[in-house]
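Tutorial, part two.
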Amino acid sequence: MGTWGSGSFENDDASDFAIDFETAGLAALSDAFDIVEVDYLEGPAAQRAVAAAEILALTLAADTSEAAISPELDEAIQRYAADIKPRKRALAREAL
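Running the prediction step on this input gives:
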């Protein structure tokens, strides 16, 4: 059974991305934002980029525990928040 909804993480590809971010961290963000270099954008890649941008937005929040979809994602966001550079934010804007 798939996941679906209007939220950033409410689809299977975004949920999978959240798990990738928990394990791969910043490399997962870079991979998600690689869509800026493609000519034809597929839905799964777009969904992963939206989820990655949501994670970047959450790094700016003082408390992410309510917004993150799992305690594991919240912990990963806290772990990598300080390492996210302005360049990643620029990539997120471009990808979206």
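The CA atoms of residues 22 and 73 lie 6 Å apart. In part three we will examine how such features are distributed along the chain.
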